[in-house]
């Protein structure tokens, strides 16, 4: 947002309503949706066509939520509507932008986030962090809010206020996307106060990986000295898929930085890198990991959702830490097995005592797999 002082004037548009052009064949994506994806895509399009106020799309990690949006976005552009996809994380905006520009190659799409090159937010199709919605009022016909359960959106009332204010008053639809709806939304669904569509399976037809628990009695001592647990080193030596890259989640920045240094020495591998929210080079590091130039990436929860890596194993150190709630652990587990060429991957929670969040996360994943037709 940049610096804003209370003595500075803020402006809003009071002129005539902007008429946006209609694009007949906006979608240039050549892929095919699965039966489950198509069902969800049809429901999203129906909600936009009928100007329904709200629709929640509850789809498991790796279901292909972005692709499900394409028909609805195409229908909106065909009708001359203005669209915004908002997400709580900057990294997700960076990942979605090239994918959507490729899928809608004839449409000018702007990406708005802290430090982005696009500044004016004047495009017909905008992808933005939820904080950027504070810049808009009565602006969008269709708003798609990705990962509504993610921090900070679910915890900051000003962001939901900004989302509501940015919608056009005369005609609007809000589509919510999530793999892990919070209790508030689950209650609204149960009471039939929130329309929803459920997608229980991944697009490649394989189940979600179920995390394994590894008990470490010396975990807290190891974490204080920034050392990996001995049980991790034993697991690492006997990995089922040693060719996979490794994504290690830790609860704090200081742990990420110092653990990374020690892992380089212990694994005798200089290809171990740390990344976190305060890292000025995080965009470059994430891209290098995606390009397989980094073998082991130690990260905080900034990469728990919204990013796709084709073939990774996932590890959580101190999985019982309060930072890792049920939703975070489900999302973290969902980073593994996302590629149809490599649909499996190990997920391991290293802990010194099970927490309710850990148990519920595994239960939730097993329930999703059962609903998706897997035993």
UniProtKB/TrEMBL annotation:
UniProt keyword DNA-binding present: yes
Helicase C-terminal domain residues: 231-375
SUPFAM superfamilies the record matches: P-loop containing nucleoside triphosphate hydrolases
Residues covered by the Helicase ATP-binding domain: 46-199
Coiled-coil portions: none
A Pfam family it matches: ResIII
Alphabetical UniProt keywords: ATP-binding, DNA-binding, Nucleotide-binding
Keyword DNA-binding applies: yes
InterPro entries: Helicase/UvrB_N, Helicase_ATP-bd, Helicase_C-like, P-loop_NTPase
Protein's name according to its UniProt entry: Competence protein ComFA
Organism: Virgibacillus litoralis
């Amino acid at each position: 947002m940049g610096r804003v002082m209370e003595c500075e004037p803020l402006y809003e548009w009071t002129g005539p309503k902007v008429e946006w052009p209609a694009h007949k064949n906006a979608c240039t994506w050549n892929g095919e949706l699965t039966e489950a994806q198509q069902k969800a895509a049809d429901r999203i399009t129906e909600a936009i066509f009928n100007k329904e106020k709200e629709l929640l799309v509850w789809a498991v990690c790796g279901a292909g939520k972005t692709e499900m949006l394409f028909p609805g976005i195409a229908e909106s552009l065909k009708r001359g509507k203005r669209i915004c996809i908002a997400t709580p994380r900057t990294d997700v905006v960076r990942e979605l932008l090239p994918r959507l520009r490729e899928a809608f190659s004839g449409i000018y799409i702007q990406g708005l986030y802290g430090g982005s090159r696009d500044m004016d937010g004047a495009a017909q199709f905008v992808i933005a962090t939820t904080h950027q919605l504070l810049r808009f009022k009565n602006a969008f016909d269709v708003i798609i809010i990705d990962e509504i359960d993610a921090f900070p959106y679910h915890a900051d009332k000003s962001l939901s206020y900004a989302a509501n204010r940015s919608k056009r008053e005369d005609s609007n639809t809000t589509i919510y996307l999530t793999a892990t709806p919070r209790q508030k939304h689950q209650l609204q669904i149960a009471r039939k106060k929130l329309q929803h569509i459920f997608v229980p399976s991944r697009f490649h037809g394989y189940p979600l990986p179920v995390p394994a628990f590894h008990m470490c009695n010396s975990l807290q001592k190891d974490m204080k000295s920034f050392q990996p647990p001995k049980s991790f080193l034993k697991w690492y030596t006997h990995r089922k898929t040693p060719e996979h890259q490794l994504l290690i989640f830790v609860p704090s920045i200081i742990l990420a930085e110092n653990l990374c240094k020690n892992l380089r020495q212990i694994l005798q591998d200089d290809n171990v890198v740390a990344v976190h929210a305060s890292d000025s080079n995080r965009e470059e590091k994430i891209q290098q990991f995606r390009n397989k130039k980094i073998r082991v990436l130690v990260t905080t929860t900034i990469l728990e959702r919204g990013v796709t890596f084709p073939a990774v194993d996932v590890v959580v150190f101190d999985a019982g830490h309060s930072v890792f709630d049920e939703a975070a652990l489900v999302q973290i587990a969902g980073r593994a097995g996302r590629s149809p060429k490599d649909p499996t991957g190990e997920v391991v929670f290293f802990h010194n005592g099970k927490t309710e969040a850990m148990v519920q996360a595994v239960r939730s994943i097993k329930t999703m797999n059962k609903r998706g037709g897997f035993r």
